[in-house]
Amino acid sequence: MAGFKLLVGLGNPGSEYENTRHNAGAQWIEALARQSQCPLRSEKKFFGQFGKVYIAGEECYLLIPTTYMNLSGKAVQAVCQFYKIPPEEILVIHDELDIPPGTVKLKQGGGHGGHNGLKDIISKLANNREFGRLRIGIGHPGHASQVANYVLKKAAPDDYTKIEQTIDESLRYVDDIVRGNLNAVMNQLHSFKA
Questions:
Q1: Is 116 marked as a binding-site residue?
Q2: What is annotated about its quaternary structure and interactions (predicted)?
């Protein structure tokens, strides 16, 4: 496995969405940027907050699209075209309804599972689904009709703490993730429970 050049954290822009469940991916990138002392700057041509950082000796790009979630692909596409990054070298960090808060899963490729951010990224990458995903569990409200409202709300303090803990835990493996040692990371991360 080649490893990842572009790490993308999904979320919605604006203070009213800050720390909502849907912004778990953006939160992950913000935490990584702080940890690596990499300032994220607003880049108009990339439709997002953007930074360059060295991880595990490799130059990587950090991106938080500042479009709305359902247009996330626009930013990803712009960076990929500019730096000639193939889909399999992209890691998208996003909130995941299908796993509970306090858990995190890593995988390469797959569908969008109804996630509007992933849906748009897949369509902007000419339907290539081979990018990696780091899925941060936010749990499910129990009924499909409640999802839209649920993801745009802040998690309960207890769940929020668990989400933060999964972010911290997965950041411990960022070198291996970037290098593409996914199986080693999966063995550790998938058994983690905050």
A1: yes
A2: Monomer.
Q: Please tell me the distance from the alpha carbon of residue 108 to that of residue 68, in angstroms, as a whole number.
A: 24
The whole-number average pLDDT for the span 133-158 is: 94
Catalytic residue among 22, 112, 140, 143: 22
pTM: 0.97
Distance (Å, rounded) from C-alpha 153 to C-alpha 141?
11
State phi, psi for 91 to the nearest 5 degrees.
-115, 120
Check whether 183 is labelled as a binding-site residue.
no
Q: What's the total number of domains in the chain? A: 1
pLDDT reported for residue 1: 52
Residue 87 lies in a domain: yes
Tell me if 68 is assigned to a ligand binding site: yes
From residue 59, give the alpha-carbon distance in Å to each of 51, 81, 146.
Answer: 10, 17, 40
